[in-house]
Amino acid sequence: MSSGQLGIGRPVAGPPREARITPAAWVYIGVVVLAATVLVARTPVLAATHAKNPWADLVVLQVLFLICDSARAPLTSRQTIWSPSSAATLAAAVLLGPAAAAFVGAVSLVSVRRQPLLGERLFNGAVHALSGLAAGSAYLAINHHVGLPDYQHFSRIMLAFAVAAVVHVAANHGMIWMINRLNRPGGPPRAEASESSLTLLLASDLGYASLGLVIASLWINLGWFSAVIVLVPLFVARWAMAQFTEEQRAYTATMNALCQAVETKDYYTRGHGDRVSRGAVMIARKIGMSSARTEAIKFAGMLHDVGKLGVPTQVLQKTGPLTEDEFAAIQLHPMRGLEIVREIGFLFEALNGIMHHHERIDGRGYPMGLAGHEIPEFARVIAVADAFDSMTTTRSYREAKSIDLAIAELRQGAGSQFDPVVVEAFIAAIGQQGWELPVPAGPPADLAMVTVQDHDDPTAPLQVVIP
Amino acid sequence: MARRPEPDRMAYWQAVDSGRLLLMAAAAMLVTAAFASTAVIVHQQQQLIDWNAALAFGGLIAFGELLRLALPGAREAAPIAMVGAMSYALLLTVRGERPGVTLPPVLVIAVCAVGMMVGALPHIAAGRPAGVTGMCSRLVAVAGVAFIFRSVVSGFVAGKPWELIVAVMALLIFFGWLIDTVVGALIRADDVGARFAVALVDEIRLQWRLGLAVGASVIITVFSVQAMGLPVLIAFIGPLLVTQVAFRRYAGIRATYLQTVRSLARVTEVAGYVEAGHSRRVSRLAVAVGRGLGMAEPELLALEYAALMHDIGQLSLRDPIPGGATVLVSAADQQRIAELGAEVISQAGVLDNVAHLVRCQAWPARGHDPVPPLGSMIIRAANAFDDMVGSSTDRDRSVAALDRMRLDPVGYDVAVVTALSEVASRRVASRL
User: Is residue B307 domain-resident?
Assistant: First the structure.
């Protein structure tokens, strides 16, 4: 959810959902709009200010708000926020008083930003007007004076402004939080871990809000020009954030393409990395990993088998039991994978996950033979998603198992091969979100691409010749 | 796999010569002179100096140096420090009290120098590079602005309308930014062996947005301090940090991206398709050749990605080519590998220019219609060179390989081979 904005039915990323407002939310919107209208109407307009040309100033601040509000950065990453419009509201609270702040906030009603629903527009306008009114009243109550800030009372102004900024952010987020609760039409709860980024969101909102005081100070010497010059660094920051988002998208796409290239070697395991990554993320969310760790495990899951490239093709294609050397070659693949990705500067934990994803809880896994909680959490998560995907996809020596059968196998392995907590979390996540099976693989056109040995399959362990 | 010393780093130390030394000497002289004259001023008219302002801006500069910003291409900037230093140089009044007489340019330089040194200490303590070159460059730029403004312009603009003052300041900030950028381009051209004009355009392209943000922030700082005094700096740190964080994340994802492609390009080595280190060596050679031929940074980045992934198509081959040397297989096979590789890369949907370079890498330089892009001709030559020479630094092998390529002006572009031989001779020299 973007900060201080209602975006009903338009998730930040992913397929468009049906845009709809529930009846409860409509009632709430009505109440907020009514409250805003009544309260603003009762407040004397610009009566408190001593500004020379208050109406012109009001219009400049409204334009500033409109520009900032209309040019919101696309929020692909939940932590990327560009919402400086509150600075205009707070500057109006300092310079022109509570009613003016409300009028600046109300401009959100006509913002050029895409708001397909009338209810959305009304609500956003009312929320910004009300939070502006609240912030302006708080400022006036503490400072007893509205207008160009006077440096002789600077400490009092600072205090009043700090309180006003906190009031503004709190009122804004409070009302948005409320509508999000009311506007959940019985569907599944939102999957995003919004709690972890909430602190960051509030901090950056307060950072932008403090710009309101800077605008008010600049107004003494520069007048309307202060609104213009403040926009410059803001838009540069916005550019950098947009670039970040774009680069991040390119990065993920490139990573996917390269992983697919690695998987072309083996007909039956195509898409394996992608599915394991998906499963690992489902588990990670279920057991409450932070969003940064979830992001890391996504990549770890994608790359967990990249070391298989180092296993000679003839070993993977061999029918019948393996010699000890050949088995050793397969057992080395997590180390090979680590060797490839070691220099990528992402979380150390992801590397651990790749290296230890074939350890077993009972200590009989490879490459290190770690047991129980010696095995890194990432590896325990990936191991479950890995085995599950192996069982639910077709192999040259068997058909794909059903989801229920695979779940039963996971339960059976819990405690010996898998971490029971992770297994239960995965089963619960599948129960809630379902699991999309890949299109069953038909016989491949080129027999060269068939792997016979699947090291991931817990129901068909690799056979090794005992000399 | 044994790790060789990074050739780039060796080149860096060898490049501590004319340009860098000159800059450091100039900065050192400036600082010495500034400290000496400041000491005299402190001795004679201590009561006239606004120590609060010196402390506040010095602190802001130190804070900014602490939070330096890594930009794409191993650059470093300190936007917050620059805002602090430039605002101090252009300070009009603090709450209407005129620091004009009490803020001589030498004091500005002294405060900047102290702030930068204090801000650099944590970097040194943490074992990171101190970034002396960057600091010197910033100091020289600030000194230029401070001298012009404090000794010439400040008296002239006093009492004039704000439009004029803002215009003059904007001009001076641009001048200071230009000094910093030109010095940065000179040092960079020296470091990586690029042409100065190309390096300057690269530098401007990369820095102008940040420069614009810094310039506007300087004007904001000067006027809000004039109105409300120094505490307003606290209110302005928040928005500055937001800008800084945005740039940091942008640069961070760029670096991770490059690292990932570098690492994943090695899958062909682990799978035994090519010799260890091949992709990395080809990409280094290709970038050096491209730079020698005057390619700009965005083109060089695409070239680096393409060179790293030029063999990725081999993953689709059933069996590895012996030794992975694509120079030894038939032209049709080379073309097939290139096509397969380009297909893999275009799957990403965001690297179409890179995919194009990979697709055309097997085309001969002459007689092919359409003509291959320069990047592809460079990759073709660098790949052939590395297939024949490998990690060896033997001079004779390198000369023989280059001779073989020279004898084939249809296959290899003459200008590219000439640039390659320059890079190769530098490479041999740097290993001695």
Answer: yes
B68 found inside a domain: yes
Does residue A225 belong to the interface with chain B, where contact is any CB pair within 8 Å?
yes
DSSP state letters, A7-47: -TT--SSSSPPPP---HHHHHHHHHHHHHHHHHHHHSPTT-
Evaluate whether residue B6 is within a structural domain.
Answer: no
CB-based contacts of B7, cutoff 8 Å, min separation 6: B284, B427, B430, B431
Q: Which of A281, A279, A269, A255 is nearest to A305 (CA)?
A: A269
Residue at B2 is within a domain: no
Residues B417 and B271 in one domain: yes
Q: Note whether B227 and A213 are within 8 A (CB).
A: no
What pairs with residue B69 in β-bridges? B77
C-alpha dist (Å) from residue B359 to A165, A420, B311, B337: 56, 49, 11, 9
Contacts of B373 (CB under 8 A, 6+ apart): B356, B357, B360
Identity of the amino acid at B56: A
Q: Which domains does chain A have, with CATH numbers?
A: 23-237 (1.10.1760.20), 264-449 (1.10.3210.10)
CB < 8 Å from B in window 32-61 of A: none
For residue A331, give both structure tokens.
């057992």
Query: Quick one: closest CA in B to A234, which residue?
Result: B243
Q: Do the Cβ atoms of A410 and A388 come closer than 8 Å?
A: yes
Residue B90: predicted pLDDT: 92
User: Which one of B216, B229, B250 has the shortest CB-CB distance to A247?
Assistant: B250
φ/ψ (deg, to 5) at A110: -110, 15
Q: Quick one: tokens of A187?
A: 């569907």
Residue of A nearest to B241 (CA): A207
Distance CA B7, CA B15 (A): 12
Regarding whether B320 and B275 lie in a shared domain, the answer is: yes
CATH number at B336 reads 1.10.3210.10
Do residues B80 and B64 touch, judged by C-beta distance below 8 A? yes
- Residue that is last in its domain, among B205, B227, B257: B257
* Percent of chain B residues topping a pLDDT of 90: 45
Are B253 and B279 in the same domain?
Answer: no
Residue from B232, B262, B353 whose CB has the most chain A CBs within 10 Å, to mutate: B232
| B311 in the same domain as B228 | no
Please state, in angstroms and rounded to a whole number, the distance separating the CA atoms of residues A16 and A356: 38
For chain A, counts of helices (H) and of strands (E): 17, 0
Nearest CA in chain A to B276: A340
Nearest to B404 by CA among B391, B420, B427, B393: B420
Q: Are A78 and A291 in contact (CB under 8 A)?
A: yes
Does A444 sit behind a cis peptide bond, omega within 30 degrees of 0 on the bond before it?
no
- Dist. CA B178–CA B222, nearest whole Å: 20
Q: Which pair of tokens denotes residue B196?
A: 């100065």
CB atoms within 10 A of CB A174: 11
Which pTM was predicted?
0.82
Range of the domain at B380: 266-431
Boundary residue ending a domain (B213, B235, B257): B257
Whole-Å CA distances, B372 to B147, B247, B329, B361: 53, 36, 20, 8
Per DSSP, the three-state class of B303 is: helix
Q: What is the pLDDT of residues A54-113, one digit of tens each?
A: 888 899 999 999 988 887 665 444 444 567 888 999 999 999 888 899 999 998 888 776
pLDDT tens-digit readout, B328-369: 677 788 888 898 889 888 888 888 899 999 999 988 888 888
- Looking at the structure of chain B, the number of domains it has is 2
Statement to judge: residues B115 and B154 lie in one domain: yes
Q: Does B256 sit within 8 Å of A251, measured CB to CB?
A: yes
Q: At which residue do the structure tokens 């802001």 appear?
A: B60
